[in-house]
Amino acid sequence: MDGTNTSMVTMFVLLGLTSSREVQLTFFVIFSVFYLAIVLGNLLVILAVASDPRLHSPMYFLLANLSFIDLCQASFATPKMIVDFLSEPKTISYNGCITQIFFLHLFTGSEQVFLVAMAYDRYVAICQPLHYMTIMSWRKCVGLSLISWVIGFIHSSSQLAFTITLPFCGPNVVDSFLCDLPRVTKLACVDSYILGLFIIADSGLLSTSCFVLLLFSYTVILGSVWRRRSAASMAKARATLSAHITVVVLFFGPCVFIYLWPFTTYPVDKVLAVFYTVATPILNPIIYTLRNKDMKAALKKLSSHHFSSKACQGSRGRKTFPW
Known about the structure:
This protein is mainly alpha-helical. It has a single domain (about 10-300), classed as Rhopdopsin 7-helix transmembrane proteins (Up-down Bundle), CATH 1.20.1070.10. The protein is built from 11 helices and 3 strands; from the N terminus they run E-H-H-H-E-H-H-H-E-H-H-H-H-H. A 3-stranded mixed beta sheet has the order 2-1-3. Helix 4 (about 95-125) runs parallel beside helix 8. The N and C termini lie far apart (about 70 Å). The relative contact order is 0.14.
């Protein structure tokens, strides 16, 4: 990175979410609890799917992969944000800033494509239930997961292809808790208008195409169920799609707002960034697991097995006496 960039700036200063010391301490507690919940919630989903044979199906395989993406997405910037609540000044090295930008677009881009894959899975399950296991083979599920990561990598690499060559020789203050591409490019010592257009074209193409595909799949699913005139099928489809639509709105909304106007930054931008770094990763396990009977049963089985193992270890370690 240092070899391709003639920058004189070796670090950036992050202003964070607030300048109030009291509010920062409050945020430290809140986001620490949130991050712990994100890690535990998504790890439990992954462990439940891996350990329970009843969940060895395409839908739960995709859910476990979504939890893995959410875990990664919450971990590339949130721990530093939590630590920064207790530190002054809040600084990040140039290489660290570029790394944050790369992982931000890698994970968000991968999740956007992965949500489309999950929508396709629901389309097959609801509209072609008799052929579900044939169409959604394990090979196809693994392929869909790999495709989402490859597209996310290409998207992220293309965003950085020109960013790492920008010279940073003056301002180094980023008004956010992480290095976000629109805010960082504004600090370059050259006109970043063309790069801003590229950001719109790249991020906009990925986000818009994924969002349109999601809306199209939901429309096709609801249309197919409505033609059957089955109240039970319609209720099931609505219950399934409501969870997906909630995630899509919370995830795509902030991304569209921030990257649709990269030339203008608003104070609300850094608050919206919290949605796809903290809110979405904690909501996905709640939305997809608490509404699912099989997943709740697997989590109960996993927790009971854990506590029973602890009890057995405790009883083996306890001495017994004849009296």
